[in-house]
Specification:
elongated, mainly beta
C-alpha cells in the first residue's frame, strides 16, 4: 500500500486475507470507518486472528466527529 497513514485520522480501508490456512484466504473486506491510532492501521481476520493485508486506505472527508 502506498498511501501514507496519518495519526488520529479516520479512513475507509480495504483489506485482504493472505493466510492460506484460513477459509477467508484471498477475500477482500471493507472496513469503514477505521481509525489510525498513532499512524498505524492494524486489522486482523475474525476467523484466523492473523493480520490482514491493507490493499487501500482513503481518508474520510469529512472526518467523523468523536463524542
Amino acid at each position: 500500500m502506498s498511501t501514507p497513514i496519518e495519526p488520529a485520522t479516520w479512513y475507509a480501508v480495504t483489506v485482504r486475507d493472505d493466510n492460506e490456512a484460513c477459509e477467508n484466504h484471498g477475500q477482500e473486506f471493507e472496513v469503514n470507518p477505521c481509525y489510525s491510532n498513532a499512524g498505524t492501521l492494524t486489522i486482523q481476520c475474525g476467523r484466523c486472528r492473523q493480520p490482514m493485508t491493507i490493499v487501500s486506505a482513503v481518508v474520510l472527508n469529512p472526518q467523523p466527529e468523536m463524542t
